Amino acid sequence: MADAKLPLAYRDTCAHLLIDLNKCRRGTWWNPNKCGHERHTFEECEYNAYLQRIEAKVQENKVLAARKAAAAAAED
Predict the structure, then answer these.
(1) Most exposed: 16, 22, 35, 65, by fewest CB within 10 Å?
(2) pLDDT tens-digit map of 39-73
């Protein structure tokens, strides 16, 4: 990723797809009609990563609520 000069903010689970997309963009002089498949693949990966983060947050909130309920029940 350092060799591809990828900024730290973009080094996530989809970075390997972004490297390929950037290579294609540089090769076609950032032509918006090219690299459609690479862009779609990268955006799909980013969306799936977003959904995983949301699901992890929902699960975390459920665990915290269960712990809070158990602590409240233990006090009574």
Answers:
(1) 65
(2) 999 999 999 999 999 999 999 999 999 999 999 99
